[in-house]
Amino acid sequence: MHLNSPDTTGNGAAPGFGIPLDNIRYNDYIGRMTKQLQAELKQKAPFTSLEEEVFLNVLKTGDALSQSVEHLLRVSGLSLTQYNVLRILRGAGSAGLTCGEAAERMVTHDPDVTRLLDRLEKRGLITRSRDARDRRVVTARITHEGMRLLAAIDKPLAMLHRRLFRHMPQQDLKKLSSLLEQVRAGRE
Question: Does residue 24 register a pLDDT over 80?
């Protein structure tokens, strides 16, 4: 039974059951959740829609999670996007990836992947080489130093992920992941 289902009985009853829908606790919970986000944003006016509230909640949550990871990566001198590229190149193996392929796989969009790769190459974390047959194609590969740096980050990052979500049951995490995938699928 969905709380947003239309009332087909005409008397406020839950559809198909003939009994009134008791949503008092639901409304209290939603009211508290809305007030929590409003307080975090220091916003006095109510949200214009549930969709706006969800959108802002996702952005606020994403920012909080990103800040935690960025703090951990700062010790290694990496930004979140630099870490992301290194992780992608590690997964590509010795074949490496073209700049365009690496950009397509990034979690967050970065309009200037070339500069990002320049910084990683300058640190000795990646190498780039031009294709012998097509000089326009540049392939990036992670170096041993880049692999070493990622290996040092892997365990602390896995521990951070567990700590960030430790209060949530596995079933809720799976549902949250599925819901977020639905959001992304719906925008296409």
Answer: no
